[in-house]
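Researcher: Next entry in the queue.
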Amino acid sequence: MIDNVETKVYETGGSMSSEDKLAVATFLYKHLDEYGDPLDDILKSIEYATNSVYGGKVLTAQLGTETCGAVILNNTGMVGYIPETILVYIAVHENYRGKGIGKLLMKKAIEETNGNIALHVEEDNPAKFLYEKVGFSKKYAEMRYIRLNYGIFKHG
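Model: Structure for this entry, 156 residues:
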């Protein structure tokens, strides 16, 4: 574990600046590697967490002024039948992986939320082991019905 890592929490209605939002989104875009999404989608999840009716949280792990990890949590507004929170994104800077920062962020995310938390993870993602280590279990296989350009495509 690296000493002196501090976590910062941005909440709904808080004071996360546009510059901070872009910085966190850019960090995630870069460090999610092949498991990432387009920058615009990451920015949408941050906007949802910080400015929506349901809200959520944005967490960062800082080593001095350097961001070494980030998490986006979106509240669902549901209770029981759907988890109350979706962990949308989590990433650790490649230079700090395997040093406890991911575990620190996961524990902080659990601490900062109420109710159940869901996340989506690809079977081949090495972070899956971290999620299991902190208590996540596989409940369902996700399937999606995706509509593109007015055509209908099944993807599962």
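Model: The helical segments are 18-31, 39-51, 101-112, 128-133.
Researcher: Noted, moving on.
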